[in-house]
Amino acid sequence: MSSDDVLTVREVSKTFGRVRAVDRLSFSVARGTITGLLGRNGAGKTTTLRMINGIFLPDDGTIELFGTTDAAAVRDRIGYLPEERGLYRKMKVIDQLLFLAEIKGRRPADVKPRVEVWLKRFDLWDKRAGKLEELSKGNQQKVQLIGALLHDPEVVTLDEPMSGLDPVNVVLVRSILKELKAEGRTILLSTHMMGEAEKLVDDIVLIHEGHAVLAGDLEQVKGSFGSNTVQLAFEGDGAFLAALPGVASARVDTNVAELRLAPDSDAQAVLAAVVGRLRISHFEIAAPSLEEIFIDRVGAGVVANRPAEVVT
Amino acid sequence: MRKALAVLKREYLEVVRKKTFIIMTLILPFLMAALMFVPTLLMMKGIESKRVVVVDGTTRLQDVFGAKRLASATEPPVSRAARELGKRAQAQQGGKALELKTDYVAATGEVKAAAQPFLEQLRENDGSRPERLDGVLLIPSDAFTNTDAKLVYYSRAVSDIMTEERLANTVNQALSRERLAGRGIAAAEADHLLKRLELEGIKVSKSGEEKKGGELSFIVGFIFAALLLFPTMIHGQEVMRGIVQEKTERVVEILISSMPSFDLLSGKVMGLALVGLTQVGAWLAMGAAMAVYTGGAALVAGVNVFQFVDLRIIPWFFVFFLLGYLTFVCIYAVGGAISNSEKEAQQFMGPIMMVAMVPWMLAFPILQNPESRLATVLSLIPVFTPITMFMRMIVSEPPLWQVAISVVLSIATVVAFFWMTAKIFRVGILSYGKRPSPAELWRWLKVA
User: How many domains does chain B have?
Assistant: First the structure.
């Protein structure tokens, strides 16, 4: 953990009744990066984010933010987008946003110009005087996101930021998050959508059963899994791919497949075997996708409490 | 603190902008007035349209009932007080008293036999006949001589105590006069002897001031007790509902991640307290406007309306209002914080509110006997003290040390409740799932 870390989670545990939601979790987030908190449903992502935001106190361990463990002292410097919508349904959009900024220590008059900029950017300016409940789910999510950003936080924590958004808004939010990063802000987002994380994050922390099982720079993590994966796009019936000689395992979808090669097999031989049976439009020898890694590490049969493998 | 103010502002504006709040504030005074006076009016109306047959075995009471209409002898206290006010303001038009239609029958033989046809009619009278009959009064022939004789009143409803009392009064008055006449006292003199005097209550105070009292200050006491209690209950519900809603809508996560729970709670409670003050302030202003309007007319007639209400009590009203309000709103906030739905919260609050209502349920004895042990003790028990003490202050002048104890006790209660509420609130507001047991609540109090 370097001195450039803005957030450090050390050996944190949290138990609800008999459920151990977070179990000796440790990871750190470097300033100015986008870090993805990955894991299956119920892995402990949301509880972790809530603890970072001072909503729950850890039973054990410490969370250090901006060099202090006093969550109350730094709560105005962090922004939080909860997983479920947390807004007043009967309140006008603009009043709501000003209120959210105010409870994060900003004067309404100071943030007003920024409210306008954000609402226009998210195409919600016309709806500013409407009540929140009149908005679609996606639009409510956008209001919530503005609320998390209005007070100009240095660290932004987002719990499933893309949920409920249509593809156009997903692209918009993605570009906004990259802008925030370019401004030097640090972003920690949780998601179980690996494809989304792959496009966005610099670092990953993969959580399983409350414990970090894999953490580090995304490219390095992928590199460590070796370049023994073939990604294939094709036309035709690819059902036979898994049974090819030299293929250890395969995930075959309609017109795309990801083949994990056996340690000593040759990708060219596999290509040769495929040509003629399918119309190939794309053939790539690559590191495994995040999704593949995810399933490999936290799919069925994962041993709990295995020490996190940190890739550096 | 600024965050607490932000919450205060939000809570205040949300409630005050609601249509229900505006409508309630505007019409509740009229509604209350209607609730007090309409039943009385209906009752008086009910009497006026009644017809009673009087079968007189003595045959000597023709003069009394011959007038056909019976002047009022009894009225419910509320209407009497209203009339009292009206009389003093000289607003009473024509002095129209209550009247009862009576038909007089002199029975020379057996009274019961003479009454038989009317009793038949009464028995069969189901409202289908044009001829109305509500009751039959039997005066025994030995009414003048036998002191154990009984007047008998037959009617389809035995609950009509007002009519019964009126009839009894009228007959007794006539009997007394007849008995006096039997001793050689002239009718005019008999009337003079039998003349009843009216009683006027005057409230004395240490300052030597004298105030007219009676039923009106009793009613004023009730009105102020209601003003203390009902806004608290209405807006306490509002606090509770708001917290439950924040929980179900998960706004609470955002709030708790942004501010200390103590700031959140104080912002909420103070915001709603301000709502309550706004509302009773508006009501008092409306009352004052009405008093000035009617008082202006009364003043011309040389009557001071303010003799019924000591204006110096108004600041005390706001003191006790705030103390009572903060006590109960804290309890409501706990109810909201530990519940997952409004229904659940209401179940939790039910028994607690029954306790809170005790001074209201005992308002009658307290107002009637403000120096009694019951009133004194109740006004020195935390939770009950704000309402009880203020009721006592309206109708009498409790010792200053008792008022001081009441205020100090109330402040201590509010601080203690607030402290406990903040702790339970911090844990409860984030708990979803089963409502905590009392044992769990106790644990929260200790650890949070």
Answer: 2
User: Residue B381's domain spans which residues?
Assistant: 2-34+216-447
User: E-strand spans in B38-134?
Assistant: 51-56, 69-71, 99-106
Q: Give the three-state DSSP class for A191.
A: strand
* pLDDT single digits (tens) A269-302: 888 888 888 888 888 888 888 888 888 777 754 4
Within chain A, which residues score under 70 in pLDDT? 1-3, 300-312
Q: What CATH number does the domain containing B193 carry? A: 3.40.190.10
Please state the ipTM of this predicted complex: 0.82
Taking an 8 Å cut-off on Cβ atoms, the answer to whether B251 and A86 are in contact is: yes
Q: Which residue of chain B has the CA closest to A86? A: B251
CB contact under 8 A, A87 and B260: no
Residue B18 lies in a domain: yes
Nearest CA in chain A to B255: A103
Strands B51-56 and A229-235, how do they pair? unpaired
Q: What is the pLDDT of residues A198-256, one digit of tens each?
A: 889 999 999 988 888 888 888 888 878 777 888 889 988 888 888 888 888 888 888 88
Flag if B253 and A54 touch (Cβ within 8 Å): no
Same domain, B232 and B138: no
Buried b vs exposed e over A268-284: b needs ≥16 C-beta within 10 Å?
Answer: eebeeebeeebeeeeee
Locate B314 and state its tokens. 């108004």
Q: Among A203, A179, A204, A188, which Cα is nearest to A39's?
A: A204
Q: Of A111-125, B43-57, B315-329, where does the model show the most confidence?
A: A111-125
Contacts of B254 in chain A (CB under 8 A): 80, 82, 86-87, 100, 103, 147
CA–CA distance, A237 with A214 (Å, rounded to integer)? 35
